[in-house]
Amino acid sequence: MKNNSTTSLELLDASSRSGDPGTGVKTELIKVGGSVLKSVLTVVVVGGTLALAYYLYTHRFKKWPYDNDLPDANVSESQAKARATTIAKSLALFGDDFDAVATALSGLNSNGFVRVYNAFGKYDEGWGQDDTTLVEFLNKHYSQYQVSQLSALLNGAFF
User: Fold this and answer.
1) 82 within some domain
2) What CATH number is given to the structural domain containing 141?
3) To 10 degrees, the CA torsion angle through 29, 30, 33, 39?
4) What is the pLDDT of residues 28-37, one digit of tens each?
């Protein structure tokens, strides 16, 4: 069996032949350093990718299921999206249009609210803020009294 490892004597011998007493050692150190750097970068890239995947998975939007024992949603997908957009825009440019939110939520049955909730998804509130679902959004931006008023529009449910 042949040993492919380089000994320190062989390195010294190689360096003395090149005329510079440290050339062989330097070359070998550069090779080892490059190998270590490559390994570290691989660990960082793989670890970072796994961390990002975990974050995206745990912070994904989870749609609510429809209740098959209750009547179908009383709004279409496009109507639900329009209502969700109205709610999201209610706080645009430092506004607070509670009446627009109340109008968007009024008249919804249970599965209709689920459809609007799913259409709302996760709302991006801007830099440094966590994305919020519809229920989180309403609880965050309105007082408990206002939230109870919105809940009453939906027969006291969902909040």
Assistant:
1) yes
2) 1.10.220
3) -130
4) 667 766 777 7
**Is position 30 within any domain?**
yes
Task: Give the whole-angstrom CA distance, residue 60 versus residue 104.
Answer: 25
Q: Which residue has the higher pLDDT, 83 or 53?
A: 83
Q: Averaged over 36-47, what is the pLDDT?
A: 82
Q: Measured between alpha carbons, how far is 18 from 22 in angstroms, rounded to an integer?
A: 9
Beta bridge partners of 101: none
Q: What is the pLDDT of residue 41?
A: 84
**126 exposure class (CB count in 10 Å sphere: 0-12, 13-18, 19+):** exposed
Q: What percent of the chain has pLDDT over 90?
A: 33
Residues in CB range of 47: below 8 A, 6 or more apart:
none
Same domain, 54 and 91: no
Residue 114 pLDDT exceeds 90? yes
Determine how many CB atoms are found less than 10 A away from the CB of residue 132: 19
What is the number of domains present in the chain? 2
| C-alpha closest to that of 25 among 39, 3, 7 | 7
30 against 11, higher pLDDT: 30
Tell me how far apart the alpha carbons of residues 105 and 87 are, in angstroms, rounded to a whole number.
Answer: 9
